[in-house]
Amino acid sequence: MINSLKAALAIGTAAATLHCAAFAQQGPTIRVSISDEAAGDPIEPEVYGHFAEHLGRGIYGGIWVGEDSEIPNTNGYRNDVLAALEDLEVPVLRWPGGCFADEYNWRDGIGPREERPVRINTHWGWVTDDNAFGTHEFLNFAERIGADAYVAGNMGSGSPREMSRWIEYMTSDEDTTLTRERAENGREEPWDVPYFGVGNESWGCGGHMTPEYSAELHNRYATFVDTPPGMDMTRVATGANVDDYNFTEVLMRDVKPWLMDAVSLHYYTFPGSWENKGAATGFDEAAWASTLKNSLRMDDLITEHVARMDEYDPEGRVALYVDEWGTWYDSEEGSTPGFLYQQNSIRDALVAGLTLNIFHRHTDRVKMANIAQMVNVLQASILTDGPDMILTPTYHSLMMYKPFKGATPLEVEFDSPNVEIGETSMPHVDVSAARQEDGTVVLSMVNLSPDEPARIRTGLRGSVATGQLLTADEIDAHNTFEAPERVVPTDFTGEETRSGLRFELPPRSLAVVTVDTE
Questions:
Q1: Distance in angstroms (rounded) separating the CA atoms of residues 102 and 169
Q2: Is the link from the previous residue into 373 a cis peptide, with omega within 30 of 0?
Q3: Per-residue pLDDT tens over the stretch 451-476
Q4: What are the residues whose beta carbons fall under 8 Å from the beta carbon of 219, sequence distance 6 or more?
């Protein structure tokens, strides 16, 4: 965090210098046409959801340190992380996995902590988990930060009865043995659990199932996902991996319609191969380009999966939840294998912006998305090291996009030239726009070029166009515990011209502005 006004002024001056220097170069002029017509349903706030798995230091040391920790905390939750997440206004949080969900027995995580069993986390590092963070800790945490709870149930190694009992424990207000046990453990009132995942990645770590068998099991398990009268719970089927369109088609065909409200999709972005994903920092322009180009693939994936959904559900009743997305690189040198700890650079912030823009184009089906993951794992918003905490460029990008929550996407047309880097060709810029309830237009602009600016000309007319710009001096610039403010947003505005507002985007940048249109 910035500790003095002097430091803040120095950072702002450096960013302004960088911005001006960029336009000593010549970049393309891109004309953007923004229609008054809606391009789809309003953008659900849940599209900006998060994911927190029992993985590495995501929970332990990231969110939870325990009441006896010397790290300042409230009831065991880190105060600095709590404050950062409250500011971010996380709409929904998915837990406990991920792969971890299908080896998790919820009863291990209730009751006095000193009496909870210690289990091996076989998926992530083969380390022990003392179950100090369980059902009460998660649901109370979600309430504390204002997020809806999205609980992933165990379809891979658990039973329908186990899943049913967990739901009763969490949500019932009847006088039963389980609700009495919940009260004894510190919670008399039931929690609201609006979303429940029936398994996770059944095609892989959740059981290596065929789509037909996964659909059959979903029908069986979802039958016993019972909630109290009057409580709505969205039942989410474990869906496809990347471009396995057949998996989606089989689910839509074979799952009983009344047992599935949403289907999931998982897609991770990396510059290399699954076996050699590439580095989070220290990469070259070729890795920059392949990462951003691969993030744009999300648009085609959603389009193709939705086409299968439309075939069996033309009314659009079943939602698509992209409940795991983000960048995945090789783990940082010196970190524990299996903890998936990686740095987070300006490149990741641009991946976030591009991905969110894509979600804005598919609001008729995409009703939730969950970036992986919240703290210290994969594309994290927050990194911690003992008592220290930093906010990543991804955190700042999500903060910048907050005005889009609940806004209605608008039709946007633009003809961007391509950036050519080696064998990779990708658009120079990407743009998204939406209208808030008060008529204000929100505009996001991403410059994918690592070294060339862009001038955005719009037909928008307004007396006020204010927002923030996120850019950096190098393509792998990132925040560290020694330099936590290297990549931070700066104020950004447009220039009024007779033909409309004009915006100057420096290279490797993301901008979000709100415009009070005439």
A1: 19
A2: yes
A3: 999 999 998 887 678 999 999 999 99
A4: 254, 255, 256, 259
Q: What is the largest CA-CA distance in the chain?
A: 72
Helix 285-295 / helix 346-360 crossing angle, nearest 10 deg: 20
Q: Which of 168, 201, 249, 452 is catalytic?
A: 201
The amino acid that residue 311 corresponds to is E
201 is catalytic: yes
Tell me what the pLDDT averaged over the chain comes to. 94
Let me know: does 253 contact 217? Beta carbons within 8 Å.
Answer: no
Residue with tokens 């403010």: 485
Q: Which domains does the chain have, with CATH numbers?
A: 5-40+410-517 (2.60.40.1180), 45-275+285-406 (3.20.20.80)
**The residue type at 132:** A
Q: What is the DSSP string of 229-270?
A: TT---EEEEEEEETT-HHHHHHHHHHS-GGG-SEEEEEEEE-
Is 518 an active-site residue? no
pLDDT average, residue stretch 412-422? 95
| Dihedral sign (CA 239, 245, 247, 253) | positive
At 59-74, the pLDDT tens digits run: 999 999 999 999 999 9
**For 10-48, b where at least 16 C-beta lie within 10 A, e where not — what string?**
ebeeebeebbeebeeeebeebebbbeeeebbebbbbbbb
Check residues 498 and 195 and name the one with the higher pLDDT.
195
Is the pTM of the predicted complex or chain greater than 0.90? Answer: yes
Q: Give the C-alpha separation, 25 to 452, whole Å.
A: 7
**Active-site option among 168, 324, 452, 504:** 324
Cα 249 off chain centre by: 25
Question: Which residues are paired to 426 by β-bridges?
Answer: 419
Average pLDDT of the segment spanning 25-43: 91
Residue range 340-361, pLDDT digits in tens: 999 999 999 999 999 999 999 9
Q: Give percent of the chain with pLDDT exceeding 70.
A: 95
Structure tokens at 359: 């979600």
Q: What is the DSSP letter of 193?
A: -
